[in-house]
What does this fold into?
Amino acid sequence: MSNFVWCHGPSCHKSHTQDRIRGVKGSKVLRTKKVQQTTYNSGQHFNMYSYFCSQGCYNDFANKHVREVIAIAPRTEALETPIDVVKEHARDWSGNDYMETKIIAVDNV
Ligand SMILES: [Zn+2]
It folds into this structure.
């Protein structure tokens, strides 16, 4: 079983970095980077870095395929979180009084 996947960034193989250079003189190429599967990006820690070598490659992929990604779970209405807004007296580091606004999530479930 291989312990890597190829980066899914659509332009990964076009970035001019030395670690992408492969081949011999006269037939060199820039190659898509390997993404090593480690304890930080596999198993319980599966995340975007399981498929992308960098934030830039992830952004390139997301921007290219944003319509397909949104089609997975389209949002047709706003979501809301029930809250209470509480005003409280507080004191800053200099000892001056001020009113602090606290937003407290209300668990209605
Ligand atoms: Zn990449």
Summary: The chain has a mean pLDDT of 94. The first strand starts at residue 4 and ends at 6.
